[in-house]
C-alpha cells in the first residue's frame, strides 16, 4: 500500500519533470500521452485503494518519507497520510483531472506552447495531491503555495495576452493576503501546541482547550487562508478575472479542485473549528453572504465563463455554510457533486468557445443547439443538475445543506438557501437559453460545427457522473467510503434523518419549487435576448463595482506611492547612499594609500606596534 500512495503522489510530478526536461525532443502526441498517462495512472492508484477499502482490508495509513525540518518544536517530517478524506479528494483531483487532461488534447491542439501547458497542468495535480495528503501543517502549506504558483502560471499561460497577465498577478496577490493569515495561524499552532502534525493535534484537543480566545484567533487565521483560496468575500474578485486563462484550466483549477482547498482545510481541521463557535458563526455569515451575492452577480453576466465563475463562488459559499453548522459530510458531498457538474459545464462551454474561436460573450451566440447537437444536451444536463432538479446529483447535496440550516435552527440561512436555489436555476437557465436557444447571431454561424470526440467524450463521462453522483452519498445508497467518513468526522442526527426521509420534509419541496420557478421564469424571459440593459443590470453585472472600489482605495494609492518612491526617494536616498558609500571607500583608500610606502621594514614596524597594543590590552 505504501508504494501505491507514493506512486499516486509522484506520478504527476514525474510527468511534469519529463515534459520540462525533454520538451525539445517530444512531439505533441507523446506530450499528450505522457501528461494524460501520469494523471490517469495516479487515479488508478487511488481507485485501487478504494477497492482495497471496500473489501475491508483498508486502514488509515501514515507514511514517513524523510525528515524534512528536524527543529525542536516543529519536527515537520515529510509524512503522507491517507484516510477517507484524502482518498476522496485524491479521487476527485485525479479522476476529474485525467478527463480534463484528455479534453485538453483537443482544446489546445493548435497552441504553440502545447508542452508548457501540459507540464504546468501536471505540476498543479502534484501540488494539489501534496496538499491533501500532507500529514503536517507546514507540508500542507507547501502544497498550498505550490497550488497557488501553478494557478498563477496557468491563468497567465497566454503570456501575449495582457488581460491574462493582469489576472494572474491579481490572483497571486489576493491569495497571498489570505495565505499570510494561514501561515500565521500555523505558526501559532506550532508555538501553542508544540506540533504541527494534524493527527497529534487532534489527540491533544480531544478533551477540549481552555483558552477559547486563542483557539478563536487561530481558526480565524486559518479561515482567512480558506477565504483567499476559495474566493470568498472580501477576496473573491480574483476568480472571475481568472477566466482569462484556457477554459480547461478554469474547469480543473477554478471549479473542481483548487478553489475547494479552503473547504478541505476547514473539514480537515474540523476538530479545531468545533472548539471555536464564534469562528463557525463568522464562517456561516461569510458563506451565506458570498453565496447570495455571487448568485445575484451571476444573473447579469454576459460572458459565459464569468457566469460559471460567479456560480462557483456561490456554491463554495454554500459549502462553507454547511461547515458552519458542523455538517462536514454535507459540505464534502456537495464538493464532490459540484466538481462533476461544474467541470461538465466549463468543458461544455469550452466546446462552444473553442469552435467559435475564443468568443465568450453570450450576446454573440444564440441558436447554437443546431450546431452543437451533443454539447447542448451535455450543457443542459449540467444546468439541471446544478440547479437542483431531482434526481440529478446536486439536488441531493445542495438541498441537504439548505434543509440542514432549518433543522439546526438557522432559519435565516434556510431562507437564504432557498433564494440561492432560485437564483442558481435562474442564471444557469439564462446562460443555456442565451447560448443555445433563440436566433442565430453572426455571419460565421455556418462555419461552426460540433467539437471533436476527444473533447465531447470526456464531457459525456462527466455528464453521467452529474446524473448519478447524488446516489454516491449516504441518502439512498450508502457507500463504505462515505459512510465511514461520516463516522470519522461526525454527523448531526438531522443529517442522517434527512438521508432516509428526504422527500418527507416540506423544506425539500420548497427547494424544488424554488428551483423549478427559477428555471421557468428564466426560460420565459431569455428565449429572446434582451438587448437593452438598465442601470440596475449594469450595477449587478459589475458585481456592485467592488473591483473598482478596490482599485480606487488600494491599488491606485499604492501605484502612486510606488511612483513617488521611484522618482523621488530612490534617486536621492538609495542611489545617493550607494554613491556616498563608494566615495567614502575611495576616500579611505586614498588615506591609507599614504602609509603604503613599499618598504618591508615599515610594514614590520606597524605589525610590531599592533602586536604590542594587543598584548597591552589583554594584560591591563
UniProtKB/TrEMBL annotation:
Residue span(s) of domain NADH:quinone oxidoreductase/Mrp antiporter transmembrane: 134-424
Gene3D superfamilies, per the entry: 1.20.5.2700
Single GO MF annotation: NADH dehydrogenase (ubiquinone) activity
Subcellular location(s) of the protein: Endomembrane system; Membrane
Coiled-coil annotated residue ranges, if any: none
GO cellular component labels: endomembrane system; membrane
Keywords noted in UniProt: Membrane, Oxidoreductase, Transmembrane, Transmembrane helix
Transmembrane segments: 6-26, 33-55, 85-105, 117-134, 140-159, 171-194, 214-235, 247-267, 279-300, 307-329, 335-353, 374-392, 412-433, 454-482, 502-526, 600-619
Superkingdom of the source species: Bacteria
Domain NADH-Ubiquinone oxidoreductase (complex I) chain 5 N-terminal: 68-118
EC number: 1.6.99.5
Record-given protein name: NADH-quinone oxidoreductase subunit L
GO biological process, alphabetically ordered: ATP synthesis coupled electron transport; electron transport coupled proton transport
Disulfide bond is among the record's keywords: no
Membrane topology (UniProt): Multi-pass membrane protein
Signal peptide: none
